[in-house]
Design brief:
heterotrimer; A alpha/beta (354); B mainly alpha (117); C mainly alpha (159); A: 354 residues; alpha/beta; Peroxisomal Thiolase, Chain A, domain 1; seven-stranded mixed beta sheet; six-stranded mixed beta sheet; 11 helices; globular; B: 117 residues; mainly alpha; 7 helices; 0% strand
């Protein structure tokens, strides 16, 4: 159902019944390594080209997510997927492997949330019983396609970003155990005239802020409604600029803006001296327990009983310069013990050459 | 010994000019190289670049600007020999070593190696 | 160039760009220049050494030793690119490794390597000059213009 100007509210609250995240060598050294289902030591996966390796990543993510849902390929009704390669080749070839009716999508880095929004829409509206959503990215394939060859000696400035090598997938269904997708806001393209391809974070931040604010406006809520607002694709610099921009444009109090969190999925590769802004091109659906998240030193008070009953929400924000689309996820609060388990974050990981 | 020091200083200075183009004017490496090549060609046209090469040796002949200089020199030498058509026929005469070896070795590396990513 | 771009921006866009620029890490220009000086200087000194080697042991003279020197430097650069080392050197040295002819060889080798998976004819052959192409095109065209002007001036009895 449409609410406000650009937000869909899913009345039946579709469930993400399983998810999988596959990563590469740098992701294996990152902060969230133990939340990945499988981590690879190299980016080739025994294939002859980067694009074929990316297809393999996505296939593994999809197969793992289907297995974890206790289903078989034949039980999946629709497959929605997108990536950054020309003609979304990895997604198309994965669809060939899965032999599931395929809806290819393209939203650059926002493909993951776009896919999740459409999958929830399909399930909520009764046009599907379940849907598999996936997305992938490959650092070397992206560099080769629309930046510089991987061995090329171009010096990257401190604002440069590093595309993730990995894939994520999730199965959305009408019933089951897992986080519920409650609402989705479709974002606009916000162009602030930035043209430096080595500074994606600053280019993406305005779209992130605009979409987050649209979400709150349409649903008539405040940031304090959420326990956590997670961003991943903005990168550290984009996240910092987004926080400042958010504060300047909305005048929300600091403690509410504190809920906006950045998750560093990768250890920065050597040679990119200060490029901690790991702009991740892959949507990884990561599992993490709320408790372990709280242990990582956040300021929010997650153990408050009020939060347990009052529907802890996680708002993952995804940003890229074309589309910003947060989905709000509601954990089923009837099982209080479950509240602390398996909270999904959708990290939207961005990187796109303008 | 003096030649080595001059090569270091002049070569380093040309690279600093390139770095300022990249960081200050925010040019891409390709734009920077093109700017330096064209500058080398213009200075070669004035006859100034050859004096720099005599002074600094490899410090002036190794940077990419000498590529522009050699293109102009080749064109002018051939034009002196055969008239204005020499401008077309003589451009690659002197730079042949550089371009040929880059193509040949680049192709060999693609034959034998795989990129590391 | 950047001021022309700025004139086409709306006030909000300009305001945001200033806002963002104040909050992002700046490029360490001085440190980059020092590293470029050192890196470029070392490469040119190595070139000087190779030139001396050809003059001393192979009977080349100052004029003719330039060609084999450039060829050897290109070979070294292609080797380092193939071993995956050159991009790390370049991240440190910046223009110090991009400006010398080794940077030119690196562009050709890296493009060839990356597109090997698409075949030798269309992949390697068709993409080898992806980044080096502009250097050759503009080098040749500017040499052509400069040479024509030079020839015309000389024939008019000029400089």
């Amino acid at each position: 159902m449409l609410q406000g100007h650009q937000t869909w509210v899913f009345e039946s609250k579709p469930v993400i019944i399983s998810s999988a995240a596959i990563g590469g060598p740098f992701e294996a050294q990152g902060n969230l390594a133990k939340d990945f289902d499988l981590l690879h030591g190299d980016i080739w996966l025994g294939q002859d080209s980067y694009e074929q390796a990316e297809k393999k990543f996505l296939e593994q993510a999809c197969e793992t997510a289907i297995k974890k849902a206790g289903l078989k390929k034949e039980d999946i009704q629709f497959f929605l997927s997108g990536d950054l390669i020309n003609q979304i080749i990895p997604s198309s070839f994965t669809a060939r492997t899965l032999a599931v009716p395929f809806l290819g999508i393209y939203g650059a880095c926002s493909s993951s949330m776009e896919g999740l929004s459409f999958a929830s829409l399909l399930v909520d509206s009764g046009f599907a019983k379940n849907a598999l959503v996936g997305t992938s990215s490959h650092n070397a394939a992206c560099e080769k396609q629309y930046r510089y060859p991987t061995e090329y000696g171009a010096q990257k400035p401190p604002t440069a970003q590093w595309t993730v090598t990995g894939a994520g997938a999730a199965v959305v269904a009408k019933q089951g155990e897992g986080p519920h997708v409650v609402a989705s806001t479709i974002g606009r393209v916000i162009d602030m005239g930035l043209s430096d391809p080595f500074n994606m974070g600053a280019a993406m931040a305005p779209a992130a802020v605009d979409t987050i604010e649209a979400h709150f406006r349409d649903l008539n809520i405040r940031p304090s409604h959420y326990d956590l607002i997670a961003t991943g694709d903005l990168g550290k610099i984009g996240h910092r600029i987004a926080r400042f921009t958010y504060k300047a444009w909305t005048r929300h109090p600091d403690r509410e803006i504190d809920r906006l969190r950045h998750f560093n999925v990768q250890r920065r590769p050597t040679g990119l001296r200060r490029s901690q802004w790991l702009c991740l091109c892959c949507y990884n659906y990561l599992r993490a327990s709320f408790k372990s998240y709280a242990k990582r030193g956040t300021k929010a008070n997650f153990s408050h009983s009020h939060r347990c009953l009052a529907l802890p929400h996680v708002l993952p924000a995804k940003g890229n310069h074309t589309l910003h689309c947060p989905c709000s996820i509601n954990r089923n609060v009837k099982q209080e013990a479950d509240v602390w388990k398996s909270l999904f974050w959708h990290l939207s990981l961005v990187d796109l050459y303008v | 010994m003096e030649k080595f020091i001059l090569a270091f200083i002049v070569g380093g200075s040309i690279c600093v000019i390139g770095q300022l183009l990249m960081d200050g004017l925010k040019l891409t490496p390709a734009h920077t190289m093109v700017t330096l090549v064209v500058s080398g060609a213009v200075l070669g046209g004035f006859g100034v670049y050859d004096d720099l090469v005599k002074f600094a040796g490899a410090g002036a002949s190794v940077p990419i600007s000498s590529f522009g200089n050699q293109l102009v020199k080749g064109a002018l030498q051939e034009a002196q020999r055969t008239g204005i058509i020499g401008v077309l026929t003589g451009i690659f005469k002197i730079t042949s070593a550089g371009i040929s070896s880059a193509i040949i070795f680049g192709f060999l590396s693609a034959l034998l190696c795989k990129p590391k990513g | 160039m950047s001021s022309i771009k700025r004139k086409n921006l709306t006030p909000l866009q300009q305001q945001y760009q200033d806002f963002a620029r104040a909050r992002e890490p700046q490029r360490p220009i001085l440190a980059n220049c020092i590293r470029a000086f050192i890196g470029g200087g070392i490469i040119c000194t190595i070139g000087q050494g190779i030139q001396w080697f050809f003059i001393t042991y192979f009977n080349f003279d100052e004029k003719t030793a330039g060609d084999p020197t450039v060829a050897v430097l290109i070979m070294i650069s292609v080797l380092l690119t193939s071993f995956g080392v050159y991009d790390h050197i370049a991240q440190w040295a910046g223009a110090g490794s991009a400006v010398p002819v080794t940077g030119f060889a690196n562009t050709i080798a890296s493009a060839s390597l990356d597109h090997k998976s698409e075949g030798f004819v269309l992949g390697v052959g068709g993409n080898m000059f992806k980044i080096a192409g502009p250097v050759i095109v503009f080098g040749v065209f500017s040499a052509f213009v400069v040479a024509i002007i030079s020839v015309i001036i000389k024939s008019l009895g000029g400089v």
